[in-house]
Amino acid sequence: MDVLLQQLINGLSLGGIYALIALGYTMVYGIIELINFAHGDVYTLGAFFSLAILGLLGVSGELHGPPLVGFVLLTIAGAMVLCGITGVLIERLAYRRLRSAPRLAPLITAIGVSFILENLMQLWRGPSPVPFPEVIPNPSLHLGGVEITAKEILVVGLAVLMMIGLQLFVYRTRIGKAMRATAQDRDAAQLMGININTTIAVTFLVGSALAGAAGFVSGVYYGTTWFFLGFGAGLKAFTAAVLGGIGNLTGAMVGGFVIGVIEAFTTQFISDQWSNVVVFSVLVLVLVFRPSGLFGEALPDKV
Amino acid sequence: MNARLLRYAWVLAIPLVPLVDRNASHINFLADAGAFMLLALGLNIVVGYAGLLDLGYAAFFAIGSYAYAMLASPQFGIHVPFWVMLFVASGIAAVFGILLGAPTLRLRGDYLAIVTLGFGEIVPQTFLNLSQYTNGPNGIASLDQPTLFGYAFGFNPVPYFYVMLALIALAIWLANNLRESRLGRAWMAIREDELAAKHMGINATTAKLSAFALGASFSGLAGVAYASKLQLVSPDQFQFSVSVLVLSMLVLGGMGNIAGVVLGSFTLSLINNFVLPQATNIAHAIGLTVDFTNYRFMLYGAILVTVMLFRPEGLIPSRQRRAELRAALADPDLSRRENAEYTQASG
User: Fold this and answer.
1) How far apart are CA A189 and CA A179, in angstroms?
2) Which of B107, B119, B329 lies closest to A101 in CB terms?
3) What residues contact residue B11 under an 8 Å CB cut-off, 6+ apart?
4) In this complex, how many residue pairs, one in chain A and one in chain B, have their CB atoms less than 8 Å apart?
5) Nearest CA among A89, A146, A90, A138 for reference residue A114
6) Which domain holds residue A171?
7) The total number of structural domains that make up chain B
């Protein structure tokens, strides 16, 4: 029972990271029906940007008190801004021109962008894993036989906060309304005076910024990062988005946590060698038997 | 007709290359490039003809290679002859093409791409994990070397060069005939408009499955030839980057056109295994420490992005494919209508 609970907690913290990435996939798919294959690599960039910012700030070890809060917030904000800009640039350079091309064309450029980013990161920080400073002190909470670390609380807490922020942004602001309108019907939205290009750019900005935050969190959580991190994580997060019903924000969050828990249980009860196979099998099964996902009511295929 | 034949007369000179060029490393390079050309020709059937974006094509290459490694090596003490294995492995790959293609039949284009990518990850991972049969990460080594009428190939690249050449000739002949066949026209109809194709009485299920099976069988051939030449298979030979490399060959040369695919695959192999290492050597000779081979992924990526943005039909386009891709760019509404219909049809 303790093992089950412990793995549930591990899974939820993993899932927090996947959920943050999945939001970016689902937002972009919702608005331009593109699987933004480079999104996983924007997440990796988030980890590397955080590493660079921490380096600039001269942080290399544990922090306490106000500096902890200040530096962590600064790093997250920096990584989010830089990743957001990267996302907007990617959309502008590689996707916008193909917005009305056959739908496989931008998917192919997205794969291209992903390879370019991976190569750049490999050249930047080398092909091997890079250690990430342990900025968060590590006291842990013991509840019965279960251990919850400060990192895990940070991951889940931050993920939930970001998601609440995103919900407010999408459902309570003017630009959020423009995003929903554009996702529903691009032409009609344009006729209503919405600037489609800006709206899509904002979608990329927000989605990529969330991936940037996830990148920082993953660095803290794993204590290491490497250029190829985003490939596997991106596929799992995409699985989460599909599982939740692509285009659906709540679905992506729930999907992220579910995938995290599935991965943790696979690692515990089968073997971590098979965790990728299990997650991809989930993807295949969902797409084949319930392509609209768990929450896929609201978004019928656009005609 | 004669003029057309004359244009391809230089092809007859290719078998003479090993007689003129005695440098074994050049012939070795050509034989390896041949294996990737076979892969590209196979993927062209799936992506170029039928329009099914398969991002996990390396899985079938893996299946072909491992089939040879398990049935023609000391691993289990089974030694099926190379020439028989060509048929067996392409058959096995074709069966897996159908098995892995079947779940994707109802999916629309981009989901199909991701599911095939998933299979492309699962297959090598499975070979890695089943280490009691496959030796896990070490792979299977000392595979049988082919013999022909008592002549042992050994480590000489020249006979492999001729085997590749023969297989490519066969693949081109097959691909050409397939394109002109009833099945080939069905593929292209599905690619252009699946709903309309179905209404014309085309059985989309059969057509798609045959595309997966035939495409996979080519990579079964490539797998056997490549594995026997390399003498080794291991799971890391079949990563996602291999699928993307082969896709880049198609995109560069021109999806759906055999001449384009041949040109694209040869150009990329040349850059990959010849130009980049040579450029690195030259750079080192003049005192630079840059290693251009580290830029490979960026090269594939840059090809995918720039070609799709500026010349989506590739270097040597197929006329139909060019019309499809260009029409969409020229008339956004047309493409949006088509996408919508496509979504309706498959959703």
Assistant:
1) 9
2) B329
3) none
4) 153
5) A90
6) 2-289
7) 1
Closest residue to B301, CB basis, from A33, A99, A116: A116
Which of A280, A281, A285, A290 best tests the B interface by mutation, with the highest count of B CBs <10 A? A280
Out of A100, A115, A123, closest to residue B301 by CB: A115
> From CA B121, how far away is CA B98, in angstroms rounded?
17
Assess B336–A contact: CB distance below 8 Å, yes or no.
yes
- Interface predicted TM-score (ipTM): 0.90
Testing the interface with A: which of B104, B126, B305, B334 to mutate, by most A Cβ within 10 A?
B305
In a domain, B15, yes or no: no
Cβ-defined contact of A302 to B301 (cutoff 8 Å): no
Which pTM value belongs to this model? 0.89
Task: Look at A104 and B113 and tell me if their CB atoms are within 8 Å.
Answer: yes
User: Is residue A93 pLDDT above 90, yes or no?
Assistant: yes
Across the interface, do A105 and B312 touch by the CB < 8 Å criterion? yes
Q: B 179-238 residues with CB below 8 A of A?
A: none
CATH of the domain at B148: 1.10.3470
Structural domain including B199 reads 23-346
Q: What is the mean pLDDT of chain B?
A: 86
* Confidence band of A259 (pLDDT split at 50, 70, 90): very high
Question: Cβ contact (<8 Å) for A120 and B344?
Answer: no
